[in-house]
Specification:
By secondary structure, this protein is α+β, with helices and mostly antiparallel strands. Helix content is 20%, strand content 37%. It has one domain: tt1808, chain A (Alpha-Beta Complex). It has a 6-stranded mixed beta sheet, sandwiched between helices.
């Protein structure tokens, strides 16, 4: 996967098994109630590894997951470029990406006005939920091990964190 952040090209290999499991489980937990409206409010696009062009071909990030309220993005783009800033992003941290995700991508997301960000740390077995307030990230919740996650913007349908750890 390639990304351009601050004018630098960053390339990383495809994720390992536990990362892929956590990713898949988040899609299951969030996709039904928020993307499809099954057991939840609906009204979202929840997508896997979208290529987000904050500035076309200049600032490009590929979060593990991203979500858009359908009122802001009524239809998906025709090509691979998502040029509407997402409402939510989620990064699943691995040893090879944790520093970049925290030090480079979180500030990038804040700079372009992503309202919510989640960081899932597989080693620490945590989910950190952030909300953008006046241009800065505010930590609104830390969930660990087998906690029940009820975090913005998806607090309406809580889920058990344990499913992410396998």
């Amino acid at each position: 996967v390639g990304e351009i952040i601050g004018g630098q090209l960053h390339v990383q290999p495809r994720p390992a098994g536990k990362h892929t499991l956590a990713h898949s489980e988040l899609i299951i937990e969030l996709g039904g109630p928020f993307d499809r409206g099954r057991g939840g409010p609906g009204g979202w696009w929840i997508l896997t590894e979208p290529e987000i062009h904050f500035i076309r071909d200049t600032e490009v990030a590929v979060p593990d997951l991203a979500g858009w309220r359908r009122e802001r993005m009524p239809a998906l783009p025709e090509d691979h470029r998502f040029e509407i800033v997402p409402d939510w992003v989620c990064e699943i941290l691995s040893p090879s990406t944790a520093r970049k995700d925290r030090a480079l991508k979180l500030p990038l997301y804040a700079r372009f006005g992503v309202a919510h960000a989640w960081l899932v740390d597989l080693a620490a077995r945590t989910l950190e939920a952030f909300e953008l307030r006046e241009g800065l990230w505010s930590l609104v919740g830390v969930f660990k091990d087998e906690d029940t996650v009820a975090a913005p913007p998806f607090a309406a349908v809580p889920f058990g964190l344990a499913v992410l750890w396998g």
